[in-house]
Amino acid sequence: MVTVILTMNLSARFTVQGSGFQSSRREKYGNVFKTHLLGRPLIRVTGAENVRKILMGEHHLVSTEWPRSTRMLLGPNTVANSIGDIHRNKRKVFSKIFSHEALESYLPKIQLVIQDTLRAWSSHPEAINVYQEAQKLTFRMAIRVLLGFSIPEEDLGHLFEVYQQFVENVFSLPVDLPFSGYRRGIQARQTLQKGLEKAIREKLQCTQGKDYSDALDILIESSKEHGKEMTMQELKDGTLELIFAAYATTASASTSLIMQLLKHPAEVMRLFTPISGGYRTVLQTFELDGFQIPKGWSVMYSIRDTHDTAPVFKDVNVFDPDRFGQARSEDKDGRFHYLPFGGGVRTCLGKHLAKLFLKVLAVELASTSRFELATRTFPRITLVPVLHPVDGLSVKFFGLDSNQNKILPETEAMLSATV
Ligand code: HEM
């Protein structure tokens, strides 16, 4: 039996592009310092105590802040964009999607999607670009497993292309001019919403004969239970948010998982945190670590730097998976030292689903395939828009025969010739 403890931490060092600048400023100015983002002042916050104050201050000290393009393109009906009571109610409705029972019902489908994908990767004669392929995999998981859409393969491929156009422009300058990134984002949103509406209508008509409930079924039921039946627009925004939230984050973590397994093939694993941190607007002036944080300013709580500097981790630079084992449980020593999924009232809603997906991927990778780095050295890592290797990570996958030996391409060709 394969036991996988899945954790995320940055202690195993790779060269991370763009991170040196912020960490050298942190070393110079301390855990709370002023910087700029796109010409606007921003307070960057590191360290469990400081981060705790930001995350627990949601709705009274600070409020979530997404760039305007993201707010407009994702739409007003999303959990991430809503605040106050609307946010609380939406979380209640959405949390049913991620209950233990719901996750159990998705599990066989997640396994199938991952097994099919690994088979395809292994039968590919060349090395594959892991990050690109992991993006396709998480998109497929969101569409087929979470939303239960039975869209034909060709249409799914087309939808994925439109979705990529959407994601590429979700953090663009909000200038609505012909050929601007923002305009391309709006067009992609319109096409996606059309496709989603068609799939939702078809799904609502033919729910018979289904062997499991998906997140969309649960969402529709849960909204009725809470007396807030969702409109078609809310359903479309909700499904787009689920795809968006699951997509880049889980693809980043899946790629890091494969990279870690390549570096440390015999070990349990830890992963890089896909999201560097979260942004907030200050609602009222407050004090943090001896500094006045003025009302109206922007704050970014840093997940990455907080992990990097957490005093609870012994030898933080050392790859040491046992630190998360039952005997040591270093991550339990303070809730806000270890926060790959954020914290407080905006803790990631999909964290249990993401962990389940990554565990299934780890188990299937270990039991059904072997893989080798196809480049001489490991690539550099970039943090934008989420953490990923700059070249996507080039890896050759092999299937395994009944003796757990690699099936080499020549053997595969011979086998198919004899059939
Ligand atoms: C490895 C994968 C993932 C990571 C690292 C991750 C990380 C995060 C983080 C750090 C936040 C908080 C952002 C903030 O404080 O502003 C967040 C929020 C959120 N995540 Fe995830 N996430 C992952 C996967 C998922 C999945 C699979 C889903 C759903 C299908 C999801 C749904 C959400 C939603 C809806 C929110 C907004 C919550 C709110 O504003 O109340 N995430 N995620």
UniProtKB/TrEMBL annotation:
A Pfam family assignment: p450
One Gene Ontology CC term in the entry: endoplasmic reticulum membrane
Membrane topology: Peripheral membrane protein
Record's subcellular location: Endoplasmic reticulum membrane; Microsome membrane
UniProt GO BP: retinoic acid catabolic process; sterol metabolic process
Main subcellular localisation: endoplasmic reticulum
InterPro entries named in the record: Cyt_P450, Cyt_P450_CS, Cyt_P450_E_grp-IV, Cyt_P450_sf
Keyword field contains Transmembrane: no
GO molecular function: heme binding; iron ion binding; monooxygenase activity; oxidoreductase activity, acting on paired donors, with incorporation or reduction of molecular oxygen
PROSITE patterns per record: CYTOCHROME_P450 (PS00086)
Reactions performed catalytically: all-trans-retinoate + reduced [NADPH--hemoprotein reductase] + O2 = all-trans-18-hydroxyretinoate + oxidized [NADPH--hemoprotein reductase] + H2O + H(+); all-trans-retinoate + reduced [NADPH--hemoprotein reductase] + O2 = all-trans-4-hydroxyretinoate + oxidized [NADPH--hemoprotein reductase] + H2O + H(+)
Binding site for heme: C348
Swiss-Prot/TrEMBL keywords: Endoplasmic reticulum, Heme, Iron, Lipid metabolism, Membrane, Metal-binding, Microsome, Monooxygenase, Oxidoreductase
First and last residue of the signal peptide: none
Co-factor(s): heme
PANTHER family to which the protein is assigned, alphabetical: CYTOCHROME P450 26, CYTOCHROME P450 26B1
Recorded family membership: Belongs to the cytochrome P450 family.
Protein name per Swiss-Prot or TrEMBL: Cytochrome P450 26B1
Protein species of origin: Myotis brandtii
